[in-house]
C-alpha cells in the first residue's frame, strides 16, 4: 500500500460493504495525498457516506482494507479516531446554546479543561468567521453559519484527517461559498480533507484530485482539469422560441462547436461543447440575430455531475435536478 514516493493520509483497497444483497461498496479504491483536499464525487446512493463511515471507523467493512494516517481502520479503530474529525449531513450542535457555548462544550468533552476549551472556542469562532455571531443562539444561525459551526466543532482537536460528508448540500450559493472558504483555511493549516459532494463545480473549486464513485466503485480518479477535459469542458445552450427554428440553430451552433450540436427534440433547445466560451457566445448570438431566429435564452453552462456520468458511464445519474447552478 505504499512506496510510490507520496505520503497518503487515506488509502483504501477493494473495500466491500454489503447490506443484505445490496453492495453499498463493491471493490472501492481510494488514495488521498497528505495535506490536500480530495473530492469524492458521486450521485445519491453511490456509496459516499458508506465509504466515509468505514474510513472513520463508524462502520465495519466486509472486505478489502483501509488505512487512515497510516493506521488500519479495522484493527486500530481507537488510534484512527484520535486523528480524525467528521462532519456529517446532520449537525450535532445544540440549537439552544450559542455558537461559543457549543464549541466550549465540545472542548470539555475532549478534555481540554475550562480555560483550554474557552481559548479553543475563541480561536475557532475567529477562524470560521463567527466571532460576531458567537454569542447568539444557534437556532438563529443561517444554514451557512450552521455548517461553519459544525466544521469548527469537528476541528476542536485539529485532526490530521477531516471527513466532510456533503458539507454544502442544501445550502444557498452564498452560504456554500462561505463553507468553501472555511475548508480552504483548514487545509492551509495542514489538515487533509476528504470531501464528498454531488457537485462537480464544488470538487473542482476545492479539490486537487477527484475520485468519481458510482455504485460502490471508483470509476475515475483524476485532477479536476483531467476530469473536465474527459467531460469536454463548457457547453453553449440555446433555447429558441419556435421549434421550427431548431435546424437553423443547429447549423449556427455547429460553426463554433466542438463536435456535433445536440438537440433531443422534446425541448426547443440546442447545446454543444465549446472551447472558447465567450467567443462562441458572441458569435452564436450575433448569427442567430442575423438569421432572424427568436431566441428565448442563450447561455454558457459548466459541466455538471450529470455530464461527467454521461461521459464516463454512458448513462445519466438517476437523481434528478443535478443541473445545479453554482455562483462562481
Ligand atoms: N443502513 C443501510 N441499510 C441498507 N442499505 C443501505 C444502508 N445504508 C446505505 N444503504 C444503501 O447503500 C447504497 C449507498 O448508500 P450511501 O453510502 O448512503 O450513498 P451516498 O452517500 O453516496 O448517497 C445506497 O443504495 C443505499 O440505499
Ligand atoms: Mg451520503
TrEMBL record:
Family matches, as PANTHER family = ABC TRANSPORTER ATP-BINDING PROTEIN, DOXORUBICIN RESISTANCE ATP-BINDING PROTEIN DRRA
Q: What EC identifiers does the entry list?
A: 7.6.2.2
Recorded GO terms, molecular function?
A: ABC-type xenobiotic transporter activity; ATP binding; ATP hydrolysis activity
The name this protein goes by in its record: ABC-type xenobiotic transporter
* Swiss-Prot/TrEMBL GO biological process terms: daunorubicin transport; doxorubicin transport; response to antibiotic
SMART domains (UniProt xref): AAA
- Specify the superkingdom: Bacteria
Extract one GO cellular component term from the record. plasma membrane
Q: Which Pfam families match?
A: ABC_tran, DrrA1-3_C
Cite the ABC transporter domain residue spans from the record.
10-240
Instruction: Please give the organism.
Output: Streptomyces phyllanthi
Main location as per UniProt: membrane
Topological type in the membrane = Peripheral membrane protein
The record ties this protein, via InterPro entries, to:
AAA+_ATPase (IPR003593), ABC_transporter-like_ATP-bd (IPR003439), ABC_transporter-like_CS (IPR017871), ABC_transporter_ATP-binding (IPR050763), DrrA (IPR005894), DrrA1/2-like_C (IPR025302), P-loop_NTPase (IPR027417)
Query: Any transmembrane segments, and where?
Result: none
Per UniProt, the keywords (alphabetical) are:
Antibiotic resistance, ATP-binding, Cell membrane, Membrane, Nucleotide-binding, Translocase, Transport
Q: Where, subcellularly, is it found? A: Cell membrane
Q: Where is the signal peptide?
A: none
Q: Does the keyword Protein transport apply?
A: no
In terms of PROSITE patterns, this protein maps to: ABC_TRANSPORTER_1, ABC_TRANSPORTER_2
Amino acid at each position: 500500500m505504499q512506496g510510490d514516493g507520496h505520503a497518503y493520509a487515506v488509502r483504501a483497497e477493494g473495500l466491500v460493504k454489503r447490506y443484505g444483497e445490496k453492495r453499498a461498496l463493491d471493490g472501492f479504491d481510494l488514495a488521498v495525498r497528505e495535506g490536500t483536499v480530495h473530492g469524492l464525487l458521486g450521485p445519491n446512493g453511490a456509496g459516499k457516506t458508506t465509504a466515509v463511515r468505514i474510513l472513520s471507523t463508524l462502520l465495519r467493512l466486509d472486505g478489502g482494507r483501509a488505512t487512515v494516517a497510516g493506521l488500519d481502520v479495522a484493527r486500530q479503530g481507537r488510534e484512527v479516531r484520535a486523528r480524525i474529525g467528521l462532519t456529517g449531513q446532520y449537525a450535532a450542535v445544540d440549537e439552544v446554546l450559542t455558537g461559543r457555548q457549543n464549541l466550549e462544550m465540545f472542548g470539555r468533552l475532549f478534555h481540554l479543561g475550562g480555560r483550554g476549551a474557552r481559548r479553543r472556542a475563541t480561536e475557532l469562532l475567529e477562524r470560521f468567521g463567527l466571532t460576531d455571531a458567537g454569542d447568539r443562539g444557534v437556532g438563529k444561525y443561517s444554514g451557512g453559519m450552521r455548517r461553519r459551526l459544525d466544521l469548527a466543532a469537528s476541528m476542536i482537536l485539529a485532526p490530521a484527517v477531516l471527513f466532510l460528508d456533503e458539507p454544502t448540500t442544501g445550502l444557498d450559493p452564498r452560504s456554500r461559498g462561505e463553507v468553501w472558504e472555511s475548508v480552504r483555511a483548514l487545509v492551509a493549516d495542514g489538515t487533509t480533507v476528504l470531501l464528498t459532494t454531488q457537485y462537480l463545480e464544488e470538487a473542482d473549486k476545492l479539490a486537487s484530485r477527484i475520485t468519481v464513485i458510482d455504485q460502490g466503485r471508483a470509476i475515475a480518479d483524476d485532477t479536476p482539469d483531467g476530469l473536465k477535459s474527459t467531460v469536454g469542458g463548457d457547453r453553449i445552450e440555446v433555447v429558441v422560441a419556435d421549434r421550427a427554428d431548431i435546424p437553423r440553430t443547429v447549423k449556427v451552433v455547429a460553426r463554433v462547436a466542438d463536435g456535433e450540436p445536440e438537440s433531443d427534440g422534446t425541448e426547443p433547445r440546442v447545446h454543444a461543447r465549446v472551447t472558447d466560451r465567450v467567443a462562441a457566445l458572441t458569435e452564436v448570438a450575433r448569427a442567430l440575430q442575423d438569421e432572424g431566429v427568436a431566441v428565448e435564452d442563450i447561455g454558457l453552462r459548466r459541466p455538471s455531475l450529470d455530464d461527467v456520468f454521461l461521459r464516463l458511464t454512458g448513462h445519466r445519474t438517476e437523481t434528478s435536478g443535478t443541473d445545479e447552478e453554482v455562483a462562481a
